[in-house]
UniProtKB/TrEMBL annotation:
Keywords: Disulfide bond, Hydrolase, Metal-binding, Metalloprotease, Protease, Zinc. Its cofactor is Zn(2+). InterPro entries: Astacin-like_dom (IPR034035), Calycin (IPR012674), MetalloPept_cat_dom_sf (IPR024079), Peptidase_M12A (IPR001506), Peptidase_Metallo (IPR006026), ShKT_dom (IPR003582), THAP4-like_heme-bd (IPR014878). Residues 647-670 have a biased composition (Low complexity). It comes from Mytilus coruscus (Sea mussel). Residues 640-670 are annotated as: Disordered. Residues 543-580, 596-631, 678-714, 732-769 form the ShKT domain. Residues 251-450 form the Peptidase M12A domain. The active site is at residue 345. This is Metalloendopeptidase. Disulfide bonds join 294-449. Zn(2+) binds at residues 344, 348, 354.
Length: 810
């Protein structure tokens, strides 16, 4: 199925440059007996640990998408030599053995034997020669052919590019796994990761690689543009940010109408698109923005006509600011589910643009244009200064809005170089991402959250510090030492040295890491933890929340912050969490009678601090009642007997997978069953559910062997192997004024990217004439996901899941 997880056979190693998926957009075909033609082709070379390489080649018409030539086969190498053989079956009814030699970048083979059908069409092919030549991420193939009528003549010529999503994911597999681990193990792993993916790489991966992303940049909908990989801009926004005429300058995106009214952002989750854990994590990301700014998120009510709609769509992208009505924020299941990315996309929804395109960027970074993919150069253009309000906020390399150092690279080389080389490693990392001082400042200034000294009893903040919504100074190092009249606290040895390190410590301490991860935090962030502890002690006076009551209630109920970020809440939401009188006990009144039903109190505590009371909201509040603060009132004061057997745990927390997930087993690749025998081996009911949850993509080996009907992977009627398609109705038409564009857009995935336009005006090319718009969009998305990312992401997910499970078990 894939090379992932398989040890490469020694014999194959010298050919490893060939492995992976290649795509050629402009193949040229000619032959004396036919008219010249063009074609698109994908090649895939895969090894499964055996001394051979499996390969497949699929070509199709660039405009009509009509499938053309197909071939499948194996490559074998003669041991201890440069001899190589291709064993090939063609869909035209020919099979052949080609032999020749290879080097570290070239293969030359010619046919030694050719098998033909007795009823094959004429003229018969006599001989075929092919020549592969690789140059890093490109691969050229030239094929010559001789028939009984025509001597050896060039027939096909094409240059492929590596579909680098695959390469990237393979390279980064270890890191992804490590990072999944850090969700479990806490901060220590997160900060130690040096080689993780950047935000742009994650987004590009979810979009299916550079080519597709490039194609997506010109949406046929004249009113929308997908800019910079992940910002969907209205025409007005695009013109003002990228246009340079004086006329458009005036219609600036800095126009405050794109900001959410009174900083209130309603949102909805698409039903079943996010697991409980993912929803929780998204809310945690929103809470991060709320904690440091005056922006507030709430689940959309009937009366909210403008809201953000989180869904599992193609790519990771958001509209910029509030655009009116329901606005989609796509977080692809296939690669966008990370907190760092949530912070980033939510910021776009708030109206924040990318850091590396700010007009002042040239003082901080250099763009290496020679390495930028030509079609992507536009996305390094600096924004029109008139269109962007910078609010005099400093440029920040560690901003959550900064793309990585290889963003939009056409050759895998660096495209962004930091002027301050010592800080280059801070750029763009997505997993380790937390909000920077400037990210918070820009939103605070955009939404008028910054208070004046006169509103705060004369408090002033030195240097870059400013007054937040609660009249506290936000200082660049996260301390409160820029507040007027405060002296620097030198009583605690401070291991974090720079302002930015101190800032990160401060963010983490507010997230509860000092309690959750004391080993790491005490040695690296001692000062931040000491400050936090001091804040929670010796408080007296009124039992009031620092933040408004509704916000504190929300953090308590939606995110579980009374446990997850306990010390932060002790200071800021003391009333809501019931911490007013006794800061040393867990809660007031002391819960001496309140007991966890689960027999391991420590485990309950650990789970509660990780948010399990919310994520695992059936099991935890019942079995870890003390840890989740869910004891009934009478239990808090009256002696009760610890609940017995009936409430002992039935499920350990942190298994956030749906119970219907099929087992993750890897077997040898399965052969696909012919149509008449296209049945599921598991009950249809189960297979259909699994397929609906995209397990055909996530776990293709199992699913294609056991749920082939539900995954639609049976043989076509014409004998080709492929996914069965819905029939196209005869009266189905592309109604757009230039219908010839429809198949091209469809090929470039616009049925998925821009279904609103495409399904209406290019219904035929999107093959969606029979179903409703919404259903159609879902189908296209699903089909697309299955086709594009099936093997790779599938395997990756399975592997990651297994490892994740291992972490949990350990
Ligand atoms: Zn972005």
């Amino acid at each position: 199925m894939s090379q992932l997880g398989k040890r490469m056979h020694e014999l194959i190693k010298p050919l490893s440059w060939l492995l992976g998926k290649w795509r050629g957009e402009v193949g040229k075909g000619k032959y004396p007996t036919i008219t010249d033609f063009t074609y698109v082709e994908e090649l895939e070379f895969v090894h499964v640990g055996q001394p051979n390489i499996q390969f497949s080649a699929y070509s199709w018409h660039p405009e009509t998408n009509k499938p053309l030539h197909r071939e499948v086969g194996f490559i074998r190498r003669k041991p201890d030599s440069d001899k190589i053989a291709f064993i090939i079956a063609h869909n035209l009814g020919v099979c052949e053995i080609e032999e020749g030699t290879f080097t570290e970048s070239e293969i030359k083979v010619e046919s030694q034997s050719l098998g033909r059908l007795t009823f094959g069409s004429d003229p018969a092919t006599k001989k075929v020669c092919r020549h592969f030549k690789s140059d890093g991420d490109t691969l050229e193939q030239i094929l010559y052919m001789e028939t009984v009528n025509t001597p050896m003549t060039e027939h096909l010529r094409i240059t492929y590019k590596k579909t680098w999503i695959i390469k990237m994911w393979i390279e980064k597999l270890t890191v992804v796994v490590v990072c999944l681990g850090c969700c479990i193990h806490g901060q220590r792993d997160r900060i130690d990761i040096k080689n993780d993916l950047t935000i742009d790489q994650v987004i590009l991966g979810a979009m299916g690689g550079t080519n597709r992303a490039a194609a997506s940049m010109t949406l046929p909908d004249p009113n929308r543009t997908l800019a910079e990989l992940d910002m969907v801009l209205t025409k007005k926004q695009y013109d003002s940010m990228y246009g340079n005429s004086t006329r458009t300058k005036r219609k600036a995106v800095s126009d405050e109408t794109v900001y959410w009214t009174r900083g209130q952002v309603p949102y909805k989750f698409a039903p079943n698109h996010f697991s409980a854990y993912e929803q929780w994590m998204l809310k945690v990301a929103m809470r991060e923005w709320e904690k440091f700014t005056c922006v507030r998120f709430h689940e959309a009510r009937q009366s909210d006509s403008n809201y953000v709609y989180f869904q599992d769509g193609l790519g990771c992208n958001s509209q910029l600011g509030m655009v009116g009505g329901m606005q989609i924020l796509n977080l692809d299941k296939g690669g966008c589910r990370f907190k760092g990315l949530y912070l980033h996309e939510i910021a776009h929804a708030l109206g924040v643009v990318h850091e590396h395109q700010r007009p002042i960027r040239d003082n901080y970074i250099t763009i290496l244009y020679q390495n930028v993919e030509p079609s992507m150069k536009i996305w390094f253009q600096k924004y029109n200064p008139a269109a962007i309000k910078s609010h005099n906020v400093d440029y920040e390399l560690s901003s959550v809005m900064h793309y990585g150092v290889k963003a939009f690279s056409g050759n895998q080389q660096q495209t962004i170089r930091a002027k301050d080389q010592t800080r280059e490693s801070e750029i763009g990392r997505v997993y380790a991402k937390e909000l920077s001082f400037t990210d918070i400042e820009i939103v605070n200034r955009m939404y008028n959250c910054v208070k004046e000294t006169s509103e705060c009893d004369g408090v002033t903040c030195a240097g870059k510090g400013y007054l937040d919504q609660n009249c506290n100074c936000i200082c660049p190092d996260g301390s409160q030492e820029c507040t007027s009249g405060t002296t620097r606290d030198t009583s605690v040895s401070n291991n974090a040295r720079t302002d930015r390190e101190n800032w990160m410590c401060y963010i983490w301490s507010r997230q509860g890491e000092c309690q959750r991860n004391p080993g790491y935090m005490n040695s690296n962030c001692a000062k931040a933890c000491a400050q936090e502890k001091k804040n929670t002690q010796g408080q007296s006076g009124l039992c009031e929340n620092t933040y408004d009551d509704a916000t504190c209630d929300k953090w308590k109920n939606e995110v579980g912050d009374c446990r997850v970020a306990e010390n932060f809440m002790k200071k800021n939401c003391r009333k809501t969490c019931g911490y007013c009188n006794d800061f040393t006990a867990n809660r007031t009144p002391p819960q001496t009678q309140c007991m966890n039903a689960h027999n391991n109190d420590t485990a309950c505590e650990v789970w509660a601090r990780k948010g399990e009371c919310i994520v695992n909201d059936r099991w935890m509040p019942l079995n870890c009642r003390k840890a989740c603060f869910t004891c009934p009132f009478d239990e808090q004061t009256v002696n009760t007997v610890k609940p017995s057997g009936s409430t002992t745990p039935t499920r350990r927390p942190m298994t956030t997978r749906p119970p219907t997930r099929p087992p993750v087993i890897t077997t040898q690749p399965t052969t696909r069953k012919p149509v008449e025998d296209c049945v599921n081996r598991y009950p249809d009911k189960d297979c259909d559910v699994w397929a609906r949850y995209k397990h055909c993509t996530i776990n293709p080996t199992f699913m294609e062997a056991n749920c082939m009907r539900s995954c639609k992977v049976c043989q076509d009627n014409d004998g080709g192997v492929g996914v069965t398609k819905n029939p196209v109705l005869n009266n189905c038409k592309d109604t757009w004024t230039s219908p010839e564009m429809c198949p091209i857009w469809a090929e470039h995935q616009h049925c998925v990217i821009n279904p609103g336009f495409m399904l209406k005006r290019c219904a035929k090319s999107c093959r969606r004439c029979t179903t409703g718009l919404r259903q159609a969009a879902e189908q296209v998305v699903q089909e697309n996901t299955e086709n594009s990312a099936r093997t790779l992401i599938g395997t990756l997910s399975s592997l990651s899941l297994m490892l994740l499970l291992l972490f949990i078990i350990v």
